[in-house]
Amino acid sequence: MKIKKIFNWLISILAVFFVGIAAYYGISQPNLNASASGGWSSESLSAIRRRGYIKVAVFGDLPPYGWVNSQGKRVGYDVRLARKVAKDMGVKLRFVQVNANNRVDTLNSNKADLVLANFTVTPERKDVVDWAKPYMKVSVGVISPKNAPITKAAQLKNKTVIVTKGTTAENYFTKQNGVKMLKFDSKTQQFNAFKNGRGQALADDNSYLYAWVKNNPKFTVGIKNIGPNQYISPAVKRGNKSLKNWMDKEITKLNAEGFFIYDYNQELKPYFGKEIKPSDIVLPQGNNK
Questions:
Q1: Cβ(184)–Cβ(109) below 8 Å
Q2: Is the pTM for the entire model greater than 0.90?
Q3: Which of 8, 68, 80 is CA-nearest to residue 266?
Q4: CATH number of 138-230: 3.40.190.10, 3.40.50.150, 3.30.479.30, 3.80.30.20?
Q5: pLDDT digits 0-9 by tens, 235-258
Q6: CB of 235 within 8 A of CB of 129?
Q7: In a 10 Å sphere around its CB, with 0-12 CB exposed, 13-18 middle and 19+ buried, how is residue 97 labelled?
Q8: 21, pLDDT greater than 90
Q9: Does 45-135+233-276 carry CATH code 3.60.10.10?
Q10: Is residue 163 helix, strand or coil?
């Protein structure tokens, strides 16, 4: 018993000693649960810089925005933006692959600091994440077989429309009467189901439907715009003001430098048809002020 008491006494003395050393040198334990308004959280700008890397959520199966090419490299419009963000922040980059329906959960569970996964700003999503300034515009489009084209919204009545869970297309058609939806977890699943004839149409962001039909010429974007025009923005965890504010400034700077036109020419233009112009996707500088 004496030995145990002496051992516990020594442990207590050592604990006090190390606390004193930490206090003397200004070392403190970060509060990982601190709010954005007081202290720093594990996803704040200061925390990211302290650890030396940023975790960015991207798609892995959505060309030309985010996918893994035949050489095993991540490429795409959002991926190039992620690399630029990390470089300008002065940290390394770690990718986190997501599907459309787990982007919010990935932020809330701290698996990612930032989402750059073709994420459309909607009123519903404003309640669950915080958005930086937009860097792209988009609306829902509808594709169909060329031999059975759907060119008007009225033609969708009593038809099966394929969508990905958690997308603006799903949100839009949930509110439309007389349209049946067939939902999938990933882009790969939805396009495979469509090619296998499991629906008469597929709805998703028009910006990458343009790219998909170029590689699948048996199909056409019969409806280029349905519902309201919307915007793609970087998303951060709700309350993460420091990272949001930094991203606002970054988007403004990149827009002024012409980065998004460059990004478009490098990553999107080779995959789009001639009828698509940079102005169909990229926002004018004046919209980002």
A1: no
A2: no
A3: 80
A4: 3.40.190.10
A5: 999 999 999 999 999 999 999 999
A6: yes
A7: middle
A8: no
A9: no
A10: strand
